[in-house]
């Protein structure tokens, strides 16, 4: 206790008690546990910003919920369907967010001999092994992301699909732009766009038919 309070008389008793209580509280803090908790939080944040871990999934799911629950004013049109806007080699795609699980920088890729051109190989995400499809090639394009044999610095992203009980699968894309509420045009895409493109927006975004895409990758 501070010597300046030792002879201060009975009026200083409440202050002495408060100081002694604060000292006891400081002494009871487990600083090692505090440091461990902070380190764990830092590691979780690093995983999230790298597109890995449960927090990354939670952020994506929460953003989808926020877009889906955006209130509308009286007479206002729908804010649209929550979609991931992403780029292939030459095409801008819209993918419904509710069908997506994770988005991660391109993992190490293992080639599989004899697979169709649209199947680049297999990857592992969060301990799950899955086929990786080139979305450009699925939609009839040539693709500009050739499978190069598994180098760790390959460009692009792997977008893991929610396939339920079906075979796990992911799509490879060049860039991930944003999450937005998109109102798809009512007009169907022309036949030459292929069976996986539902419609095309005025800014030339190909809105995917996610049901057809999931049926294809799970087969």
From TrEMBL:
What's the protein called, per UniProt? Chemotaxis protein CheW
Q: Which InterPro entries match?
A: CheW-like_dom_sf, CheW-lke_dom
Domain named CheW-like: which ranges? 79-219
Give the organism, scientific name. Azospirillum endophyticum
Entries under PROSITE patterns matching the protein = CHEW
In this record, what's one Pfam family? CheW
């Amino acid at each position: 206790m501070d010597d300046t309070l030792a002879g201060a008389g009975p009026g200083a008793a409440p202050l002495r008690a408060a100081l002694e209580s604060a000292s006891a509280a400081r002494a009871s803090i487990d600083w090692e546990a505090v440091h461990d908790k902070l380190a764990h939080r830092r590691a979780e944040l690093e995983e999230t910003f790298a597109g890995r871990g449960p927090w990354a999934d939670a952020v994506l799911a929460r953003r989808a919920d926020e877009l889906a629950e955006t209130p509308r004013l009286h007479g206002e049109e729908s804010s649209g369907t929550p979609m991931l806007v992403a780029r292939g080699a030459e095409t801008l795609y819209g993918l419904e967010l509710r069908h997506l699980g994770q988005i991660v920088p391109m993992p190490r890729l293992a080639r599989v001999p004899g697979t169709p051109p649209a199947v680049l190989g297999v990857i592992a995400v969060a301990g799950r092994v899955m086929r990786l499809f080139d979305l450009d090639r699925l939609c009839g394009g040539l693709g500009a992301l050739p499978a190069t044999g598994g180098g760790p610095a390959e460009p692009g992203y792997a977008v893991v699909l929610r396939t339920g009980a079906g075979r796990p699968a992911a799509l490879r894309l060049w860039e991930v732009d944003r999450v937005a509420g998109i109102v798809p045009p009512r007009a169907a895409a022309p036949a030459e766009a292929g069976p996986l493109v539902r419609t095309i927006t005025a800014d030339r975004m190909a809105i995917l038919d996610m049901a057809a895409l999931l049926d294809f990758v799970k087969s």
